[in-house]
Specification:
The protein has 2 domains: about 40 residues; about 40 residues. The protein is mainly alpha-helical. The protein is elongated, with a radius of gyration of 20 Å. It is built from 7 helices and no strands. α1 crosses α3 and α2 crosses α3.
């Protein structure tokens, strides 16, 4: 199953606006290139809470910021095809830049 595409706050607001203007959920879903069930759940959440922001999720807190994640991903793409053991990664710009433990460096494959 492909990963879900998250709707931005702007897209969520647009969807609610269109729904309030009388546009069908299926048409809103087509405009935003998501499944109709996403729009229906968004509408139900908005009716129940009056908000469109994502809810807090349970689980372990993130160890890196989105900016660090992008940097790690870019570095990993650049290093594709090279060995990827923990000692070698510590010596790369990725390991030196963030002083990350090897377990975090190996997250993006």
């Amino acid at each position: 199953m492909p990963p879900r595409r998250k709707l931005s706050d702007l897209d969520r607001g647009r969807a609610i606006g269109w729904l309030q203007d009388g546009v069908a959920a299926r048409q809103v879903a087509q405009r935003l290139a998501v499944a109709p069930s996403v729009i229906i759940r968004l509408k139900q959440r908005f009716q129940a809470t009056g908000r469109v922001q994502e809810r807090q999720r349970s689980g372990r807190p993130r160890a890196t910021t989105q900016r660090e994640d992008r940097f790690i991903h870019k570095e990993r793409i650049a290093l594709r095809g090279r060995p990827c053991n923990k000692d070698w990664l510590r010596q790369t710009t990725l390991g030196n830049a963030y002083k990350l433990p090897p377990t975090l460096l190996l997250v993006v494959r």
